[in-house]
Amino acid sequence: MKPQASVLANLDEVRAMIKRHKLNDSIFAIIGLVALMIGLLTLLTLFVDLVMDGYPRFNLDFMSEFPSRRAGSAGLLSAWVGSLLVLSVTFISAVPMGVGAGIYLEEYAPKNWFSDLIEINVTNLAGVPSIIYGLLALGLFVYILGLGQSIVTAGLTLGLLILPVVIVSTREAIRSIPVAIREAAYAVGATKWQVVSQHVVHYSFGGILTGVIIGMSRAIGETAPIITIGALTFIAFLPPSPVSAEPPYLNFDWLFSGFTVLPIQMFSWLSRPNPEFHINAAATGAIIIVVTLLMNGTAIWLRYNMRKKIKW
């Protein structure tokens, strides 16, 4: 009878421990939910406040007019065109290099101290403050390379900023692919390149694309590095068009043109004492938040649909 009593006592202790752990899990889940709701409600409150303040400026004229000294007739044309061109350079300079580096480090790089050193530095660079990249770009791109305070300088600066993010997200997406897929491909005679290009990258493309979009959404709201390299706060003209009507039909003069972007234009209006300019700044802030949310939402939607279509 004693062994049976001991077993029952142990079972009671196990049940009590499980019950206690479930209670701790429930408490932690409630605390996490409360913290999440506080953050979301704070963001929602600030966003609604921006929308209410900037509502009078939500019209096509605001998007199609140049900045002006008169708040009522000032617009975002040069700012959103500048943001679009800068982000184009950012994408071209950072995404191919970042994805390629992530694939190399995860699939091809030998596992030694040198690759470990690179991995540590890439991870650390992802957390470096953006102003550091601005100072680096000011010394390297503006003064040493002589690119000036131009769109190409801003694009390369933001490219450096999001490059570690793209590399890390690419590696994480590749790591999520089961080893069995690689082994199955090797078993039927596939080469290393075929395994990586036709299987690993194919299955991880959704995660890679998500990381790229999240990095780009971070770049669109950056202000400190753009101010550091000398972006204009008032610009009443557009850069030259990238496309021309005459051969070779491509024009690269826009790369070296002066520019402004949405966060800089918002900062310029917010620093003015006239309250009417603050309405413009509120409208610009709401537009930046909406664009960022749309980019992140698109990333989540694409990742979900791509994973849904893939058959493991």
From TrEMBL:
The chain crosses the membrane at residues 27-52, 72-105, 125-145, 151-168, 200-220, 226-245, 252-271, 277-302. Residues 80-299 form the ABC transmembrane type-1 domain. PANTHER family: PHOSPHATE TRANSPORT SYSTEM PERMEASE PROTEIN PSTA (PTHR43470:SF5), PHOSPHATE TRANSPORT SYSTEM PERMEASE PROTEIN PSTA-RELATED (PTHR43470). GO terms for biological process: phosphate ion transmembrane transport. This is Phosphate transport system permease protein PstA. It comes from the Bacteria. SUPFAM superfamilies: MetI-like. It is a multi-pass membrane protein. Its main location: membrane. The gene is pstA. Coiled coil: none annotated. Pfam families: BPD_transp_1. One of its GO terms (molecular function) is phosphate transmembrane transporter activity. Keywords: Cell membrane, Membrane, Transmembrane, Transmembrane helix, Transport. Belongs to the binding-protein-dependent transport system permease family. CysTW subfamily. It is found in: Cell inner membrane; Cell membrane. One of its GO terms (cellular component) is plasma membrane.
